[in-house]
Specification:
The complex is a heterodimer.
Chain A lengths: L2 H9 L3 H23 L2 H17 L9 H22 L19 H9 L2 H20 L2 H12 L4 H8 L3 H22 L10 H5 L1
Chain B lengths: L6 H11 L5 H13 L1 H19 L24 H49 L5 E2 L3 H11 L34 E2 L39 H12 L25 H5 L6 H27 L1
Parallel strand pairs in B: 1-2
């Protein structure tokens, strides 16, 4: 069975078929939520909520990119989570420092340990830390666009569909978000590994 | 840099890197990049920025986000549903078995009984036919007389199947004692005696080609009442019960023996009404159970 069959079965109420779609897109959805919320637990909650919402509304799916449709659910779920956090700010009991007590069962941790050079892993964590910091400074709408386009690899049409924003707006938002990110990353200066430093900051 | 490159150019460079500029705009931007070094610098910065972002690994989810029925408000199927489904299936199967038990034997017995009865009647017919005694080898007289003047009413004996019914005073002597082969008697040696039906000599017989009026029973005063009755029965028709031959309208039918009903004769037991009603009841019960379980499952 292909994606179209799964979608059509899901529209008939077949939960197993929908779960196949979940398996296909859950990493993408979780990454978007994680970059949007910068918190794994919140990202998991938002991802789960998004998939539940997607199942309940899948009959309204009228074709096109299912990936973009699912990511729109995730984006909406992330916006809801961000608003909830703004209304009820709370401090997580779990360590937020990525270098701290990471879950031993974390697949990301295991991947880092077994497949990457320790030096590369450390440099990438520094870069990720800087990027997370810069993403947090971006407005939510800009953040969603830049994550989908530059981190998730969606094209402009998919981003436009997922964010429900006109294509022209996507172009301008993406350009401005990239400019802000570039400036932010330049601000990290020598804190970034040398290979990740932007040329302009090296020349400064 | 921000001050040196306008927002419009920055958007063009961004779109150009993503391949979203049309050919004309892309050609124009290429020429501008060659002419303006600050644009070229911005282009290289953005290229580097994209390369950096590609270095950031995708984080895999720590768990599956597959949905369970209770997550999306799908109520689990009531426990009664499978019970009702199973019960309905069992009851339906029982009803089918009941019908089979009820109907199959009667069908098989009926189909077997009809040929048997036919065979029995066919076998009994020749054995019940009486012997024919020919007077002095005058077979032709009898056969011609009976066959042309008064045809026998279907005795199963072919064209000469009559028994003295035709002709005026048919010269037939019926020996009531069972004698296997036909006996040829000389005309002179035969004298009327008790136990025999006496007929005129064959020489006085009516020619076979002439139509014969209806025979009138003749009574020999020398005979006893029983013999007279036999004589009259023989002369009145060939379907005499004494000869064991069925009347015309009864031929081909299954005649039960005295004291035996027709049902017993063909040995075809009819379906029991109790079993039939029980089977119908079980079917209705199975249907009700099936509908109920379907409604329960659909309600969830």
């Amino acid at each position: 069975m292909d994606e179209t069959s799964w979608i059509s079965s899901s529209q008939q109420g077949d939960l197993d078929a929908f779960n196949r779609l979940v398996m296909a897109y859950q990493d993408l959805a979780f990454n978007l939520a994680l970059r949007m919320l910068n918190d794994e637990s919140s990202a998991e909650d938002a991802t789960q909520t998004a998939f539940i919402s997607a199942y309940r509304h899948i009959k309204k799916f009228r074709g096109g990119s299912f990936k973009a449709w699912v990511l729109r659910m995730v984006t909406n779920s992330c916006y809801d989570e961000l608003r909830r956090k703004q209304r009820h700010p709370s401090q997580s009991l779990e360590p937020t420092d990525p270098d701290g007590d990471q879950d031993l069962e974390s697949q990301a941790w295991m991947v880092d340990e077994h497949t990457r050079d320790p030096q590369d892993s450390l440099e990438q964590k520094e870069l990720e830390h800087a990027l997370v910091h810069c993403l947090e400074k971006l407005p939510e709408d800009f953040r969603a666009v830049v994550v989908m386009a530059d981190l998730e690899g969606l094209d402009y049409k998919e981003v436009s569909s997922a964010a429900r924003i006109p294509l022209g707006t996507i172009k301008s938002r993406l350009a401005r978000a990239r400019l802000k990110l570039r400036d932010c990353l330049q601000g990290f200066g020598e804190l970034l590994p040398e290979k990740f430093r932007l040329q302009s900051e090296e020349t400064v | 840099m921000k001050d040196q490159v306008s927002q419009q150019y920055w958007e063009r460079i961004s779109a150009y890197l993503d391949g979203q500029l049309d050919t004309r705009a892309a050609e124009k931007l290429k020429r501008d990049l060659e002419v303006h070094p600050e644009l070229q610098k911005a282009f290289e910065d953005l290229q580097h920025y994209k390369a950096i972002l590609k270095q950031i690994p995708m984080r895999r989810a720590r768990r599956n986000f597959t949905l369970k029925p209770e997550m999306v408000g799908i109520k689990p199927m009531p426990r009664l549903v499978p019970v009702f489904r199973l019960a309905s299936a069992v009851i339906a199967a029982a009803a089918v078995v009941l019908f089979a038990i009820d109907l199959l034997p009667s069908l098989t017995n009926y189909s077997a009984a009809v040929p048997k009865a036919a065979l029995t009647s066919a076998e009994s017919a020749p054995s019940s036919a009486p012997e024919i005694i020919y007077w002095n080898g005058q077979q032709n007289y009898l056969s011609n007389h009976v066959g042309t003047a008064t045809p026998a009413p279907g005795l199963g004996m072919g064209e000469g199947g009559g028994y003295g019914g035709g002709g005026s005073a048919a010269p037939v002597t019926v020996n009531m004692a069972p004698t296997p082969p036909p006996v040829m008697l000389p005309a002179e040696s035969v004298a009327p005696s008790a136990g025999q039906v006496v007929a005129p000599p064959p020489g006085k017989a009516v020619p076979p080609t002439e139509p014969t009026p209806a025979p009138t029973p003749t009574v020999n005063p020398a005979l006893s009442p029983t013999e007279i009755a036999m004589d009259q029965a023989i002369q009145s028709g060939m379907n005499s019960p004494i000869l064991g031959i069925a009347p015309t309208d009864q031929q081909g039918q299954i005649i039960p023996a005295p004291g035996e009903t027709l049902r017993e004769a063909i040995t075809a037991p009819q379906p029991s009404r109790v079993l039939t009603f029980l089977g119908i009841g079980l079917f209705l019960l199975a249907a009700a159970g099936g509908i109920f379980s379907w409604a329960l499952a659909r309600k969830r």
